[in-house]
């Protein structure tokens, strides 16, 4: 085993420089990562996931207009003082919670050149060690963590590790797709870890190598930085992380190459578009102990009422 393979994963990079165009006008003046999912901004779920995996050093790759994200993880002395004076200990604890999750740093991406470029912006901070990358559009349920398993696989096999999700074959063109071979690893169920032999960014359905899609969790070898430096813009004229991973998959382990995948079988919430965002809010609210019972009861009544309303409206089945 090389020294790289046993270097602990101590840092995470979280790209948050996107414009959030799919959520305008809500994101005209508010970072999309700050949109609330129940009562926390989406980005807080991601940072909580990082902290739960034992990573205490986190780099935000930001852009102009994203200062609210950094502010959220900083102290708000005036608000804390007001809540303390009112004796509102519960809300005070919630306000203080984000500041204690991790040691958070930030660097600006500047020109938006794609996810691969955003990861490359973390090179100076990360240095020569493996690191995690988490995308804010994918929220992983805290009850079904995948990052600790990915870190374990990287520590045991070296190289880079990506998270994969089985999707309907007809939907694979919306994702990066992976061709894989099985791997047996002690302590992990058969089929949950694979060797990645090929990656294709958003392939046509008929050309996809499988229905295993990349989702927004990675544990990367530092060799990815040299590869990204040489990666030409691809789909969308952007530097694609998927293209760099394809190169790493072909490189020898002695040079930091090799890519493995961990197949995720838990609960995941996609906040990448409006409909999936609304679904994520509902699913997480229903599972909350403080909100779930009342919200579920109201939701059942609302849906039943809508069903009756639509059934009794002749025009509902013949929209103009």
Please, could you describe this protein's structure?
The chain has 320 residues and is α/β, with parallel strands linked by helices. It has two domains: 267 residues, Alpha-Beta Complex (Spore Coat Polysaccharide Biosynthesis Protein SpsA, Chain A), CATH 3.90.550.10; 42 residues, no CATH class. It is 35% helix and 21% strand. It has twelve helices and 13 strands. The strands form three sheets. It has a nine-stranded mixed beta sheet. It has a two-stranded antiparallel sheet with strand order 2-3. β2 and β3 form a beta hairpin. α4 packs antiparallel against α5 and α9 packs across α10. The radius of gyration is 21 Å and the shape is globular. The N and C termini lie far apart (67 Å). The N terminus is likely disordered.
Tell me about the biggest sheet? 9 strands, mixed
Calculate Rg over CA atoms: 21 Å
Morphology call? globular
Whole-Å distance between the termini? 67 Å
Summarize the SSE layout with pairings.
Blueprint: H1 3-6, E1 11-15, E2 36-37, E3 40-41, H2 42-52, E4 57-62, H3 67-72, H4 77-86, H5 89-96, E5 103-108, H6 115-120, H7 123-126, E6 131-134, E7 138-140, H8 147-157, E8 160-166, E9 176-182, E10 193-201, E11 212-220, H9 223-230, H10 241-250, E12 259-263, E13 268-270, H11 274-286, H12 292-312
Parallel strand pairs: 1-4, 1-6, 4-5, 8-12
Antiparallel strand pairs: 2-3, 6-11, 7-13, 8-11, 9-10, 10-12
Helix pairs in contact: 4-5, 9-10
